[in-house]
Design brief:
- Helices cover 41% and strands 17% of the residues.
- The protein has 151 residues and is an alpha/beta fold.
- The chain has one domain: Rossmann fold, CATH 3.40.50.620.
- A hairpin with a 4-residue loop joins strand 3 and strand 4.
- Helix 3 runs antiparallel to helix 5.
Length: 151
């Protein structure tokens, strides 16, 4: 039997990601797992002006976007159940959302134990599969930006 200790639910605040979050919440509740709700905020581009190539970054705008994303994630994880599940709210800044989510899962050790599943004939970890899909945009989730540069 599989025991899940961590569930990652990535969100872009769309209806499909809301459905995935509902499913992730149910899995976390059934297994007594921690739910990681992850949102990736794109980087605000640096603007270059004039012949001298004067570069202007917009850190205030970037901070506002990240703060607003944190508020939206917090609103998603409200759990009025008598026994709330453990939840980690995560906002990441990156131009490559799929890769950022996979990196987060790897850093937090979310996924299957590679050695145990390799011995039983299964192929690698969940994160390994996500990495393969992140490198192959044709196999990625519809609408996901999986290119290394985010373009």
């Amino acid at each position: 039997m599989i025991t899940l200790k961590h569930i990652v639910a990535a969100t872009d605040f769309s209806e499909p990601s809301g459905a995935a979050l509902t499913y992730g919440r149910a899995l976390a509740r059934n297994f007594g797992a921690t739910l990681h709700v992850v949102h990736v905020v794109g980087r605000v581009p640096t603007a270059v002006y004039g012949a001298d190539a004067y570069a202007v970054s917009m850190p205030e705008l970037q901070q506002e976007l990240e703060d607003e994303a944190r508020k939206q994630v917090a609103a998603l994880v409200v759990d009025n159940d008598q026994q709330p599940i453990p939840v980690r709210q995560v906002v990441i800044t990156s131009d490559a959302p799929a890769a950022a989510i996979v990196d987060y899962a790897a850093r937090e050790h979310v996924g299957f134990d590679r050695d145990r599943h390799t011995r039983t004939g299964r192929r690698g970890t969940l994160a390994d599969g996500q990495c393969r899909r992140a490198r192959r945009p044709d196999r990625a989730v519809s609408g996901a930006d999986c290119s290394p540069s985010g373009t």
